[in-house]
Write a structure and sequence with these properties.
The complex is a heterodimer of chains A (272) and B (259).
Chain A: H1 2-8, H2 13-39, H3 43-50, H4 53-86, H5 92-99, H6 101-104, H7 107-118, H8 125-130, H9 139-163, H10 167-175, H11 180-208, H12 212-217, H13 228-238, H14 240-267
Helix pairs in contact in A: 3-14, 4-9, 4-11, 7-9, 9-11, 10-11, 11-14, 13-14
Chain B: H1 2-23, E1 25-31, H2 35-48, E2 53-59, H3 61-69, E3 76-78, H4 82-90, E4 98-103, E5 105-110, E6 129-132, H5 137-148, H6 157-164, E7 165-169, H7 172-180, E8 186-190, H8 191-197, E9 201-205, E10 214-220, H9 227-238, H10 240-248, E11 252-253
Helix pairs in contact in B: 2-10, 3-4, 5-6
The chains are: A mainly alpha (272), B alpha/beta (259).
Chain lengths: 272, 259
């Protein structure tokens, strides 16, 4: 795809060759660890490790929690994306910067902050505790950690999509008598769909790989809070083959998310 | 000419210093429970030999052990139990270990709560107990202790406590953190961790008949490029000066239980 673009723009082949050579080291470095992971697999042990109760439990928990987290990101994030993309108000730029805060601090720090907010002795958590609600060490804590780390990806990607829509198109619809909600469903959302879907998949992939905040806030218990990344870390202590096998499951899921995002983007003829 | 000479002299001094510093950079992988004591020992050692520098990586013993098996370039490994060291010795990745310290375990509870006051409370309804991972020494010892308490304290005591466990942490310091924050009602950690945690936790002693004595082996690793300097540091840990620092942090002497 990049090659076609270069030809279309009439760039020199020597530039292409030069860039290819200078790009190669980092490309090799980025992909080599994944090749090493796949090379470390012993097929028979891999199958038994992938089918082990610990791996399946972690996979199911990861799917369950990331779907919940991504859904909540979508419902809660789209209004924020629209707000940032469509409206100017005092503090808009500040809000836009603050939204990125959860992904610019180390996830472990995000986990500590979550504990101090929603832990049993935390700012909000102590009042919840008084009502008999404890969030720490529960599956809900896992979902909260994932929402915190993943939602900025969705909000920012979706906002870029909303910003790119020509306001005239929506104005025509409004002049023709469509209500605000109808304009949103029939015009805005379909036009921004590629970005929204891309953002959703990015958020999902990020939620799937969440480790630091989960470890801090939700702890590590099989079937309850031990998601795939935590299962890899726990298996690393006992048995490297199981750690490798669970890592490959995570890798397969991530690659699926990336391919899905690309395919959908190509269908809608957008590149990102 | 003068300027060139001065430059040359500068480079020579710089090169000498760099070489000296490089040669005496001791990299140590140590069990998380050794964090405070080993940092103090490192400072004391650097005072004795100002050219040597000790770099630590603290973590759960099994995590560090796996990293060494995967080729981490380290000079010394100090484990909180024998099994994690024995694997390395058997694979010729580590020289013969010496026991340099011993430790016992205690139950800790947050100072801010009164849920757990005695050991039998661990089995109470809805009590949130946090342990280190099953292969992490503190976690393995905790399971051993709970088994010893059954049926002495209550029938099925270990099963009831294990049912209350909400998390298996990556190392013993993570257990301390969860209890300090009041997230967990209790945890089982080393006596030294409880001392290091200070006033934020209450310590509930485990009677000797149920307790275990954790032995800490230390060894120079085969991958070390400075085995002589590494041995010198281990000798310092076993010297009266090193042992007194360990004792000050609550460890028992390693001498009584040489293998």
């Amino acid at each position: 795809m990049y090659l076609q673009t270069a030809e279309r723009r009439g760039r020199s082949p020597s530039e292409f060759g030069g860039l290819l050579v200078t790009s190669a080291p980092l490309i090799v470095f980025l992909l080599l660890p994944f090749v090493a992971l796949c090379a470390a697999i012993h097929p028979s042990e891999w199958l038994s490790a992938v089918c082990s109760p610990a791996a399946i439990q972690a996979l199911l928990l990861s799917i369950e929690t990331t779907l919940a987290a991504t859904g909540i990101c979508l419902v809660g994030g789209l209004p924020i994306a629209l707000l940032l993309a469509r409206h100017s108000f005092p503090g808009r730029r500040l809000l836009s910067t603050l939204i990125d805060l959860p992904i610019s601090v180390p996830p472990v720090v995000a986990g500590v902050c979550l504990l101090l907010a929603f832990g049993r002795t935390g700012l909000v958590g102590k009042h919840l505790h008084a009502l008999g609600i404890d969030i720490g060490f529960t599956t809900i804590a896992v979902v909260l950690a994932q929402i915190m780390i993943a939602s900025p990806f969705l909000i920012k990607t979706a906002a870029a999509g909303f910003e790119a829509i020509d306001p005239d198109i929506e104005d025509y619809a409004r002049v023709s008598g469509a209500g605000t909600l109808r304009v949103f469903w029939a015009i805005t959302l379909p036009l921004a769909a590629p970005s929204v879907v891309a953002g959703t998949l990015l958020a999902w992939a990020r939620a799937l790989s969440e480790f630091g905040a989960t470890m801090m806030f939700a702890g590590n218990f099989p079937g309850r809070t031990q998601t795939l990344p935590l299962a890899v870390m726990s298996a690393f202590e006992t048995d490297l083959d199981t750690a490798i096998a669970i890592s490959t499951i995570a890798l397969i899921l991530s690659i699926s998310a990336l391919i899905a995002a690309r395919t959908l983007a190509q269908r809608w003829k957008v590149t990102w | 000419m003068k300027a060139i000479l001065r430059l040359l002299l500068g480079f020579t001094i710089l090169a000498t210093l760099t070489l000296r510093a490089d040669a005496a950079d001791i990299r140590v992988f140590a069990a998380a429970s050794l964090t405070e004591a080993f940092k103090a020992i490192g400072t004391a050692y650097e005072r004795v030999d100002p050219f040597d520098h000790v770099d630590y990586s603290f973590g759960g013993s099994p995590t560090l052990r796996t990293q060494i098996q995967q080729g981490a370039q380290v000079d010394i490994f100090a484990s909180a139990d024998r099994p994690n060291m024995d694997v390395l010795t058997a694979a010729h990745l580590a020289g013969s270990p010496v026991i340099f310290a011993r430790n016992t375990l205690v139950v800790i509870a947050p100072s801010s709560s009164t849920t757990v006051n005695r050991i039998s409370d661990l089995a109470g309804n809805g009590v949130r107990v946090v342990l280190a991972g099953p292969k992490v020494p503190a976690g393995r010892y905790a399971e051993e202790i709970l088994a010893k308490m059954t049926p002495g304290i209550a029938s099925n005591f270990n099963k009831s406590v294990m049912a209350n466990v909400v998390s298996r942490e990556i190392d013993v310091k993570a257990v301390v953190a969860k209890v300090q924050l009041g997230e967990a009602d209790a945890g089982i950690v080393f006596a030294t961790d409880a001392i290091a945690a200070g006033s934020k936790v209450r310590t509930i002693p485990i009677p000797a008949k149920y307790n275990v004595t954790a032995e800490y082996p230390i060894a120079v690793l085969s991958s070390s490029t400075i085995p002589v300097i590494a041995s010198k540091f281990i000798a310092f840990i076993n010297s009266p000066a090193g042992q007194s620092i360990l004792r000050a942090h609550g460890f028992l002497s390693g001498q009584a239980a040489q293998p």
